[in-house]
Amino acid sequence: MASMMQPQIILLKEGTDTSQGKAQLVSNINACSAVADVVRTTLGPRGMDKLIHDDKGSVTISNDGATIMKLLDIVHPAAKILVDIAKSQDSEVGDGTTTVVLLAAEFLKEAKPFVEDGVHSQNLIKSYRAASTLAIEKVKELATSIEGKSLDEKKSLLSKCAATTLSSKLIGGEKEFFASMVVDAVIAIGYEDRLNMIGIKKVPGGTMRDSFLVNGVAFKKTFSYAGFEQQPKKFLNPKILLLNIELELKSEKENAEIRLSDPSQYQSIVDAEWNIIYDKLDKCVNSGAKVVLSRLAIGDLATQYFADRDIFCAGRVTEEDLKRVAAATGGTVQTSINNVIDEVLGTCEVFEEKQVGNERFNLFSGCPSGLTATIVLRGGADQFIEEAERSLHDAIMIVRRALKNSTVVAGGGAIDMEISRYLRQHARTIAGKSQLFINSYAKALEVIPRQLCDNAGFDATDVLNKLRQKHALPSGEGAAYGVDIATGGIADSFANFVWEPAVVKINAINAATEAACLILSVDETVKNPKSESAQGDAAASAMGGRGRGGGFRGRGRGMRR
Asked: Domains (ranges, CATH) in the chain?
């Protein structure tokens, strides 16, 4: 009786939603599977695209896992982890974003029956971590190095990697054309780590094949005043002056007060203004520069002055383009026109203004430092060009990684099947429950080849059985066999040049295992519904307080005056 009378202990605010235990973990796993189902069909060369229509009315068509995950606006706290790993894969390696989401969801799916049967999730986590370490060691062992090859050999190897990445994108039909373009661009910037040294400019119209690479900088013609028609549009080996100042006739500040005793003195003030601008322009001309670029406006007076002296000028050049011109031509951006010495002027072999579609472009090619390249993309629809840009970004990242880490593995699900076989063999040597867990991890890795088959409309069971048989050969000759998208059978991925950098796979396995372990280790979710409204109220009151305070302050100042 006494125990019934004890008061109920209230720890959390009223209305707090807590869910814990097995059901909570299973619900998190289901949420992650639902997220993976969204991007599942985008994997591989036959993957479908997603059309995402956001609240602002803008439409994005994409095949890139990370882009889709970002735009989905997921609110489920556990499923958000998958968005984060897709983003990290995108920023770290550039490709394999769909792979990483699929793997994480598949690891969880394989763990679900064990969780439901009452296995403690820490046992699962321990086995998964061990399995991922073994898998990564195996990837490193199977990887082939491309180090020590000649430049031409390296180029062809890198373009194979880029073509593999591009084959799953919208521009997959022209993958050879774009792959060689990407490799040239990456080799042009050398070992520079700054990705913004490769500019991608989009010009609607024309076909994809009209896209071209400029070994240097290209940017759209800026707004120009009357007089630019008389300027020369092509120079050989010009000197280039980069400025961050306005070359406009400025009237004196409106609130300046000048007292004149003689009206003729007024003319001297007007003349002074003109002298200032003419002085600046003379110094630009005397520096010997033939091309003058400025981040701020270059007015009509200056434009005509330069045109009379056969100098090309462009004002309001974006900062990013100006920085790239500076890096390419070896010039330095000047904030003052005084003391312009030869060292701060850049140079390039050819400068020209050229029509691209219905836009005019300024092209600087044959730059001495050569640490920059620009890809001008053409295509029909805007969405298409946007997607092409995202695809090229992935390819550029992949080629950079392959250049740096210089080891590649067989793609097309070959490496996944080989690791899966290796882990199954290894699991047999382990006594105890973890044998089952490592086996389930190995089974989860097969999701990649299976999904490749499903997306291409092949019989996945049939293809996977052939792959298992090939990979089980004792001699190890079947290690490079993966799904052959062209015929619906299996083929040697390595011989077919379906390659990807080892770092993509290593990163994907690492991130997916971490995410799966993180979700498995959560056993309770506490959701405080009041906090959201409370935060809103607090923010509103803070804003209100600030507004009121501001009002009083202003009045005080007025009174003092």
From this structure: 17-145+414-521 (1.10.560.10), 151-212+388-405 (3.30.260.10), 216-252+270-369 (3.50.7.10)
